[in-house]
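Suppose you are handed only these lines of text.
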Amino acid sequence: MTIDAQALGDELLARVDAAGDLKALDEVRVEALGKKGRITAEMKTLGSLDPEARKAAGQALNAVKDRVAEAIEARKGTLELAEMNAKLAGDRVDVSLPPRPGQMGRLHPISQTLDEIVAIFGEMGFSVAEGPDIDDDFHNFTALNMPPEHPARQMHDTFYMADENGDVDMSTVLRTHTSTVQIRTMEKQKPPIKIIAPGRTYRSDSDMTHTPMFHQVEALVVDKKTHFGHLKGCLQDFCSAYFEVEDVPLRFRPSYFPFTEPSAEVDIGCNRKDGGLTIGHKGDDGDGWLEILGSGMVNPKVLTMSGVDPEEYQGFAFGMGIERIAMLKYGIPDLRTFFDADLRWLKHYGFVPLEAASLVRGLTP
Ligand code: DAH
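From them, the structure of the protein bound to 3,4-dihydroxyphenylalanine can be written out as follows.
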């Protein structure tokens, strides 16, 4: 018996081309190349041939096998792409449709809080600045007056990036705070500067009050005559507007941050009566304090390193945790629940998205 490898190849290739979907293609693959397939069956007949003919037929069959395998791979790629495109076309949703009754999505409390913060500072004349989540050592530490070996670096539980060999690259970090954006803003913008920088920050820390990713908002004001009184007034106005309580008591406690001098941590007055927590002191019924942020006058060294002349300009800055102030305002007890993606939680704490936060119309919808 002689083998017509050419005819077999042509037939199998035609079958591969005709396979209309991945299932049909797999059937062709099994029939052509499988253990009980056509090519294997032909291979088994080689033993009956004389050595010369066996060699030639064997080579021809192997060539057919390779061609068919190659054609199957190519056809597979085409079919997979077609299947994915069909699925994408079928999955398309019209995002402009109104929500179905009872099915409206909710704004996450972090988004709501961010909108509120932007609305309040926007009204005060701040603009929003941004910087990268993956930043370099200079912007996260050195330019903020934390040179290599500075002990304050240890407070940050930094996530370092890996280089292309998978080794730790100490020069690239997931930013540990939004203070990086202070530097980036001063590098590209001449004072006067008046920005807030909300965004994600990262630290290798996880418990009831810490998650590896969290949000902060940074503020930076730089001008010729900026002073501590401006910082105080700005925070007073912000806290009263945000907590929707007139004259929230604020307490400035001396503190230390490498990037500010002098530095202060700021507490807001609260009342912990009857197991609840309310913001503000009413009459003499409360004397509790809660820390909400760090602040201070920008260290002249930081101005210099960012290209701003400290002889001519001075500024204030502060940074606060967004989850923290969202928890305080909305009575959310556990930080980790922000990131559980639990629909029941979102239904309970989420916000109807159709009302934008604004000082005029009200912050909380
Ligand atoms: N970057 C500080 C932190 O993450 C917060 C902070 C403190 C920011 C004081 C500031 C500041 O701008 O002046 O803990």
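What can we learn from it? The CA atoms of residues 243 and 329 lie 6 Å apart. The mean pLDDT is 92.
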